[in-house]
Amino acid sequence: MRFRNSLACVGLLAIPALLGMAQDPESPAKPDAPLYSTAANPNVTGADATATIAADTRPLTGAQPFSLGISGHKQMSVSLFASEGWDSNPGVIAGTGTAFESLTIAGGSLALQRQLQTSQTALAYSGSVVHYSTSQPAFSTSQNLSFSQNFQIGRWNLTGADAFTYTPNSLMGGGFLLPIPEQVPDAVIKPQYAPNQSILNPYGAQYGNTVMGQVAYDLSRRSTWTASAIYGIERFQDFSLYDYNEITGTSGYNYGLTSKDSIGISYNYSLFRYDNFNSQFHSQGLQLSYGRKIGGRMSFQASGGPQFINSGGLTKAANQITYNGSASLDYQRARTSVSISYFTGTTAGAGVLYGATTSTAQVSVSRPLGTTWSATGIFGYSRNSDLTNTSQIYQGLFVGANVHRSLGRYAGLTLNYNYQRQVSDNCVGLACGDLNRQIAGVAFNWSFRPIPLE
Fold first, then answer.
1. What whole-number distance in Å separates Cα of residue 232 and Cα of residue 183?
2. Distance, CA of 435 to CA of 346 (rounded, Å)
3. What is the pLDDT of residues 333-370, one digit of tens each?
4. Percent of the chain beyond pLDDT 70?
């Protein structure tokens, strides 16, 4: 409880301050052509970035998050890394976490961005091979792939996106098996529409995939209507965890108050279905939203509203009324980057619970330390309670930090440390108990010269 209250206070104090610092002269309400986010360019920072980047055109009530900014880059970037480290609890087993074992990771990433007058394409892949000296399995992999395609046809804007992950266990903790911060495009689907992975589970492969289709129509220069359909799955190698599917449909109306500020109202419906047994439940609700975008500097969006849950497929306590909300802030000032996100609502339960009330929060800060050094810190908290038995609770905490040293224009060395902990109350199953894990290591990375795309 203290973790959650402290983080909420920090977020409430930080967001208004950053919104005030990010004031910028007025710009046209919409660019002449739709553009796609390319804010993650490692060779453009500070004033150079804001000089060529403008706010993106993603609708507030759509299924994609706002980005820091957009530009017209057409390029493909490739990087490789190798890491040697130590893991205090490779199997993620309760009651352990002090016997360190050597860990070797090798992998790479690819990011492709191509923006034309009426279409935008973004593809990002990152993957690694993981080897433990004594634990079984000795070898495993981590894979992440995302793709987004957008078309502008008159007043119509059509978007399709897909996000796939394959990991040795849940991503609670931010994907520590990829120690190098990847320079890839922004998320192609809002996190609240992807399968929940905020409960730490024991070592065992799992994969998830989310596909999204969206249509937006400009009713006027200031107003836009959106409709989205999202389908997601999560599958687990360990049969004691619960495979599930998610189907979500949304529709919303957006209105631009100014060239930077917008408001919206939306309706959403979600169906959660479990493969392990013949059961399902659904939720629906209304949300009010507010967003603010300043190209190259800041993007902020927040939404919230009532949510009606029919859990009759899981329990006799069929109907509940609760709250669903989310907020995110990405901010860049000079060479300092800050990212804050928060979500609360109903999820499928991360393979551990038959439906859950979930709250997650995360804060990350990145800043150069001179001309060759840079540092990144991350803090996160999660809480999941059983949808029909509120005494069954999982609380997770993760902290991570890395220090990066550039070795010339394309090479670098990174020292990283990650800590994960999860405690549970009144639970049964693999994820119960006090789970502790620490991973530390050193990594060498090499980034190739970006390849222009014509």
1. 25
2. 24
3. 878 899 999 999 999 999 888 889 999 999 999 999 98
4. 81
Q: Which one, of 87, 91, 89, lies nearest residue 203 by Cα?
A: 91
Per DSSP, helices labelled H in 22-138 are 46-52
How far out from the chain centre does Cα 250 lie?
Answer: 19
Q: Within 10 A of 134 (CB to CB), how many other CB atoms are there?
A: 8
Dist. CA 397–CA 257, nearest whole Å: 38
Query: So what's the pLDDT on residue 215?
Result: 97
Query: Are the CB atoms for 269 and 287 separated by under 8 Å?
Result: no
d(CA 54, CA 398): 33
> Can you read off the two tokens belonging to residue 443?
């990594």
Task: Residue 100: give its domain's CATH number.
Answer: 2.40.160
CB 30 within 8 A of CB 58: no
Secondary structure of 274-341 in the HEC alphabet? ECCCCEEEEEEEEEEEEEEEECCCEEEEEEEEEEEEECCCCCCCCEEEEEEEEEEEEEEECCEEEEEE
Alpha-helical runs (H) found in 39-165: 46-52
- Give me the number of domains the chain comprises: 1
Bridge partners of 332?
337
pLDDT of residue 138: 84
Residue 298 has pLDDT above 50, yes or no: yes
Q: What's the rounded Cα separation, in Å, for the pair 90 and 41?
A: 34
Residue type, 274: Y
Report the pLDDT averaged over residues 381-401: 88
- Separation of alpha carbons 272 and 345, rounded Å: 13
For residue 364, give both structure tokens.
């990350």
Taking only Cα atoms into account, the Rg of the chain, rounded to an integer number of angstroms, comes to 21
**Structural domain of residue 138, as residue ranges?**
2-452
Report how far residue 25's alpha carbon sits from residue 169's, in angstroms, rounded to the nearest whole number: 46
Tokens of 313: 């497929």
End-to-end CA distance of the chain: 53
Structure tokens at 226: 């959106």
